[in-house]
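pasting input
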Amino acid sequence: MTRIRRGYIARRRRTKIRLFASSFRGAHSRLTRTIIQQKIKALFSAYRDRDRHKRNFRCLWVTRINAAIRENAASCSYSTLINNLYKRQLLLNRKILAQLAILNRNCLYLISNDTIK
Amino acid sequence: MASQAASSAFNGNMKKALAGLKRINLDGLRWRVFDAKGQVLGRLASQISTVIQGKDKPTYAPYRDDGDMCIVLNAKDVHVTGKKMTDKFYRWHTGYIGHLKERSLKDQMAKDPTEVIRKAVLRMLPRNKLRDDRDLKLRIFPDSEHPFGDRPLEAYVMPPRRVREMQPRARRAMIRAQKKAEQQEQGGNDKRKGKKREVEAELT
């Protein structure tokens, strides 16, 4: 059989991967074999962290709500606030409560004082 | 001002007290004062660590250091429960084989009482890159004098604490000690042993 060169097939595949890793640091954006490995790791991290993202933010919101609630003299803690909200069937989620804690703290205090009664 | 007179009272520690103040950014921070007199060591350190991390602010973010400056006064008057004064050991290894060194709480308080609280708080902070910067925000003084009198200071009110009931055996021992002290008082007041037991009864 005649000798067949594969031509540009491999190069086309590798430039796509190289484009993906174009903003990585050092050898991770320059060396082909390293780029392939780093792309796999990056995609895996993205997959895993899409769920972690949700957990992390909820954690952050809980901490912020806790801090804001404890500064109020009347209400005690995050746990009591959430319990009271559930008893009153108030469906505010932690994201909104955290935003209230930063931007409109008086509103949050109104809500918590109302639910305590 | 009385604070100026107090600040000139300890010239030796001025450098240590003001060390690294320039490195701390953003003086939108508050200066909170903790009085360690009569506080239990670990419970106080726990509160200090939440303040230093900035976890009592609703704008907390884990990636940046936004905690307030904490000044702790009367570090030599901090309490520990149980027999920790003689039995709690601070241990460290120097790296050489067999050189595990230890020092008891009593010796550490005699040597440098501020280290006790500093170690307690540092060991309660998360071990990340912000830990050293948070260390800079902690200023501990053994007495109630500090050079920061001209800053706007806020006293920190410790949250109310539920002290649990004494365990039955300890309570019986305390009652026995009190009864013995009363008997000693009725007997002779000049014996040394009697005085020691009085002091013990007063402490309990």
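fyi The helical segments of chain A are 9-20, 32-71, 78-87, 94-103, 105-116.
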